[in-house]
Design a protein that fits this description.
Length: about 400
């Protein structure tokens, strides 16, 4: 299915480091790339480096004053609470601008590769910092790299870009930056804002002005698991992408919906997440001519979940998906144990069979997942000429 696939990576991407004890530990992407390398996944892709995003590039989505504030914090490491740096979520640290701009630059490199045709698919697993706002850091995110990738492609002449966010947290920053832009369809499936940060992402948030209907939110109940999550995904995402027909599909793959994640409650399995990656890969080909830019995102179970999930993502994008029962290499298990002190997983599966009932089978008003599906479809499907119920 896949042709040329590029993975953007530089070891310096691990310098995005809020310090000991912070949930967003850079070892998670270090171990992801190590696992992908040991399993031979990286042999099936082109690897490329990246340069930091320039101030002019960052200014496509962030205010100049904010960029200057991040640079000041970067020089001395002292907080700037007005810029959102110096909080428990976003501690200030020396070098924060350089580290953040490099992640943004990696997603720009991925977007550039796909836009120019240098690659059909391109990935930045260190990216996906979707909470950053135009003038403030938020939710572990300083510069919003997926929004920047989208804005850059718009500046090159793109007229229809779809963004699908499967992180357990609402993709609020990306939604905010394109809320009144009809060229960008943002779809976020996330845990209900009633139980999880950032408290936004209700179905009624649908876009503004000419962009009405282009912000799509599917807030799901805690504990929905693979069955409910996949039912909601397939009830909402494929029909919208088929109707919108994007030139490029951009996806954010936070894996913090997993049952082991310490910060959220959706209880997905690795196998369910892998099924989502397969579906998005297929949709990239069916609706966007195969042009796909993918990033990482949240994910705070550093050994059991993130490395395996995103190794599956890279393998899926490469066109050489891994069998679920593939063993994790001994060399990787030793590295993971050395770097974290944790007992690493032995295989690339949680042993689940992520089946789900298609929404065309009928709506159950007593099911909170079905109610979430209908709320999302009621809010936006009419704007796209789609029927709310099948």
């Amino acid at each position: 299915m896949s042709r040329s696939v590029r993975v953007v990576w530089d070891d310096a991407l691990t310098s995005y480091n809020f310090g000991p004890g912070h949930p967003l530990a850079p070892v998670r992407v270090e171990l992801t790339m190590a696992l992908a390398r040991e399993l031979g996944v990286l042999a099936n892709v082109e690897q490329a480096g990246c340069a930091p995003a320039t101030d002019d590039e960052l200014a496509l989505v962030h205010s100049r004053d904010y960029i200057a504030a991040v640079r000041r914090v970067s020089r001395h490491g002292r907080p700037d609470l007005a810029a959102g740096l110096g909080t428990s979520d976003n501690p200030a640290f020396a070098g924060v601008h350089e580290a953040s701009a490099l992640i943004a630059g990696a997603s720009l490199a991925a977007a550039r590769a796909v836009w120019t045709g240098a690659a059909e698919h391109a990935l930045n697993v260190a990216g996906g910092l979707h909470h950053a706002m135009p003038a403030t850091a938020s939710g572990f995110c300083v510069y919003n790299d997926p929004a920047l990738a989208i804005a850059w492609m718009l500046a090159q002449g793109a007229t229809r870009i779809a963004y699908v966010d499967v992180d357990v947290h609402h993709g609020d920053g990306v939604q905010a930056m394109f809320y009144d832009d009809p060229r960008v369809l943002t779809i976020s499936l996330h845990e209900s804002p009633r139980t999880l940060f950032p408290g936004t992402g209700f179905p009624q948030e649908t876009g503004a002005g000419e962009a009405e209907g282009t912000a799509v939110n599917v807030p799901l109940p805690a504990g929905c698991g693979d069955t409910g999550w996949l039912r909601a995904f397939h009830a909402v995402v494929p029909p919208l992408l088929a109707e919108f027909r994007p030139e490029i599909l951009v996806t954010q793959h936070g894996c913090d919906g997993h049952a082991l994640d310490p910060l959220a409650h959706l209880t997905l399995s690795l196998d369910g997440q892998r099924a989502a990656y397969q579906a998005l890969h297929r949709l990239a080909h069916e609706t966007a001519g195969g042009r796909w830019v993918a990033t990482g995102g949240g994910g705070y179970e550093l050994v059991q979940v993130v490395p395996r999930a995103w190794t599956h993502l890279i393998a899926e994008a490469s066109g050489h998906p891994l069998a679920p029962d593939t063993a994790t290499p001994q060399a990787w298990r030793e590295l993971a144990a050395e770097r974290t002190g944790e007992l690493p997983p032995l295989t690339m599966t949680d042993g689940r069979n992520p089946e789900f009932r298609d929404f065309s089978d009928g709506y159950d008003p007593g099911d909170p997942v079905d109610r979430a599906i209908v709320a999302a479809r009621n809010a936006v499907f009419p704007a796209h000429g789609l029927d709310v119920l099948l």
